[in-house]
Amino acid sequence: MINFNGNLVTASNENIENNRGFLYGDAVFETIKVLDNKILFLEDHYFRLMSSMRIIRMEIPMDFTLEHLESEILKTTQALNLSNARVRLTVYRSGNGKYSPETRTTQYLISAENTHAVYENNMLEYEIELFKDFHVSKHLLSTLKTTNRLINITASIFAEENDYQNCFLINDDKNIIEAINGNVFVVKDNVIATSPISDGGINGIMRKKVIELIKKDDSLQFEERSISPFEIQKADEVFITNVIQGIQSVSKYRKKEFTRNIANALLIKLNAQIRFNS
To answer: Where does the pLDDT of residue 276 fall: very low under 50, low under 70, confident under 90, or very high at 90 and above?
Structure first.
């Protein structure tokens, strides 16, 4: 069951031959976590979605309020009897046209699946490698969650073919901007760094939350700057953040193995914050 423009249906019956999201990647999406029937970081997701729609000049319907989207998301998860869920909200431009759309009106689709409850750091081996076949350009569109994710897809296939759990993506300056599925943080001597959004990485919701946690800890220092691949081999710790997993520690990059201490400590604070705000 899915939510198609506010209606709970078994299928959208949308004709993909006329769907701009399919034909041209003319769509943006949010991946959202529901915990105990509560949408985590709802305002952050909502304002990022609104910003993305404005940037690509997509018409925002009058009823696209925060309250409306909250209601539609929970209507979907509750219909599926999911108290903990991974939700995908996809908004695409409807209507005909080639590269130039004949209309800027929008439609949306909400799907949901079961997921784990609180955030946990996967303690299994998690090896990562540099993906060098394609680069991410340093511009505003690269920071949006659009349905054009070909670099992420090809990097995922590369990782699977070579028995890696993830890959670092790089920009045209050959700096690390993110992983396949989240933002990257590098730890060295209690200094935690992540690349600026201007380098081309996704403007992650969990990235924002983790930065807030780091800044509240007097024992840690935060830096937002470009990250060279050479820094990874000198780091004490590397971890990846996204709104579904929370924080995922990297165990190995090439011959370098990493600790997980700071990631685990941040994860405890993250879960405590979520429970307190629930």
So the answer is: low
